[in-house]
Design brief:
By secondary structure, the chain is mostly helical. The protein is built from four helices and no strands.
Length: 108
């Protein structure tokens, strides 16, 4: 699992360092997926019952990593959607998605 996390981080870093805005957005999303997999791996894959009160003598699994990942997935989806809408609007107004041209843009 750690190799997959490393590959996701490498791909995400490569995309973030590119010159087009869409690749930067996809790179941040892939890094977010790598973080989710890292949290799941750190939580461990344990066998056990659900953490319900009243059950005695059973081993329980920790629900915290799953709750963190579920929250992170929703936040990652929302921020990716927002960035895609903003980049589409910037492309429609400015006519380019190249970051070098966007940095040098001045209002006339």
């Amino acid at each position: 699992m750690s190799i997959v996390v490393g590959v996701l981080f490498a791909i995400g870093t490569y995309l973030v360092l590119s010159k087009t805005l869409l690749r930067v957005i996809l790179g941040t999303s892939i890094i977010g997926h790598g973080v989710n997999l890292l949290i799941l791996t750190m939580g461990g894959l344990k066998k056990g019952g659900p953490p319900i009160l009243g059950l005695q003598g059973l081993t329980f699994t920790d629900p915290l990593p799953q709750a963190l990942i579920l929250t992170a997935i929703v936040i990652n989806f929302a921020t990716t959607a927002l960035f895609l809408v903003l980049s589409y609007r910037a492309y429609r107004v400015l006519g380019t998605d190249d970051l070098e041209q966007l940095r040098g843009y001045e209002d006339e």
